[in-house]
Design brief:
Blueprint lengths: L1 H21 L2 H5 L4 E2 L6 E2 L21 E4 L2 E5 L16 E5 L2 E4 L5 H15 L4 H7 L14 H6 L16 H22 L17 H5 L11 E2 L8 E2 L12 E2 L3 H9 L58 E2 L2 E2 L27 E7 L4 H4 L12 E3 L18 E3 L46 E5 L16 E4 L7 E2 L3 E3 L24
Parallel strand pairs: 12-17
Antiparallel strand pairs: 1-2, 3-6, 4-5, 6-18, 7-8, 9-18, 10-11, 12-15, 13-14, 15-16
Helix pairs in contact: 3-4
Amino acid sequence: MKRQLIGLSLLCIGAATYFSACTPQSVKKGKGGSISKTTGWERNNSGWGGFEVKEFEGQPTPSGMVFVQGGRFTMGAVDDEMPTLEYNNTRRTVTVSSFYMDETELENESYREYTHWVKRTYFTDYPEMYLRAMPDQTVWRSAMSYNEPYVKNYFNFNAYNHYPVVGVNWYQANDYCEWRTDRYNEMLLVRAGYQYTNVNQSGEDVFNTKSYIAGQYGGSRRSKKTDLEPNGSGERPVDYGDGLFVPDFRLPTEAEWEYAALGLIGNNPSPENKRRRGEEVITDRNVYPFGPKNTTRYGLHNQFQGEFEGNFMRGKGDYMGVAGGLNDNADGPTQVNQFLRNAFGLYNMAGNVNEWVMDTYRPNNHTDVNDYRPFRGNEYMRYKSQEDYTLEEKDSIGHIPMERVPFDGLSSYQRYENRTDTTNLHSYRDGDRVSQSQYKYGEMSLINDSTKVYKGGSWADRAYWLSPGTRRYIQGDMSTSTIGFRCVMDRLGSPTGDVQPGGNSFGRQKYHKR
């Protein structure tokens, strides 16, 4: 037995010597900085093919946002829900992934930055784009109210800079999210030293993330990104693999919005920290985002006791209380960073203004949507390609054209029943087996594929609508003086942020001898 072990050891030493001698010098030295664990080839080295890998260094929280750690929760109506005939808030357990969310509703000032950019960039050639981006300021008009001061001043006057933007429809909110993504990524390029600021963008010469990655935007380049491709040009644009760009800004799904509003992390009596693992327990069900209590008033015995925790209508005709004792100190909307934050650090997830979410409305949504990252409204799109499989040239406003994903572009395991349109799933499982909705908009209901959900309650709503489980709907191309929005961004990688990797880590484990 001893001789066998000695022979085996000599064999291993000989094999190691052989492979070491056959290994190229650059691999042994690690000239490129890292070695493939499957092939032994060197990465980040043009002499070895130029395969580039940049290790993930974490995802910073975007400016103006807070981190919302995902998890499972009971979505839908609370016990004291107002009886209805629709039963569209049936409780069900779902899971949402971690994400980042705007700390406040989007302000007038922030939306004016958007319309200013659109006007500066497109107005000369495409004035309709500026007009299409502007909020509808006439939403304040009411036949039996004197609201002209709001019509003239609410969006434009600096007294309302930090008030929530209203009069923005669902499609405008989505356009803003797309614009914000491009401006944020352009800023990251400038601060990283790859681009100069270009204030003269116009027409097709505007920064768009996809067209930049495709090499269709030059702009005012400051420095080059070295291309390690042996047969390449020696330089390339920054791409997603470099870890500089951020995921897209977008509207939250209904499940994400409701989860964030409830702030149930504040109901965990033993959350994780550096010293202990968290317990999988929630002590109470929140009626409102303010915490585990069924009240809209601050309850601690201090100078704030009894104050309203949100901006809403107390009763018919009572929007702010009496002089010398205003109950919420706001007649209409008010500044977005007022009132009590919830456990995630989010302001006004109840009251002030309602908020658009991404979902298409259906009253029976709870019976159709999955329990993992639930969402209704998928519409699968892709960037257009030419015959040689290169991307189509950008259009006159600087964007690469898009098209619906054809049926043969979907994975074979995906089953969408016997549908004629498998890329527009707004009305999926609506009671029929084709893409037409059963609701017959304008004949039997006000529901179609453009009907969108909004949530949260507003300055003009009773406290009932402040409960995150409540939901209402309106056509996506309509806007009101009581609906605004905020953006979210997907969290990539670990659901706990950059504190630890995904999964449960037990340190560097060693296999135990048996």
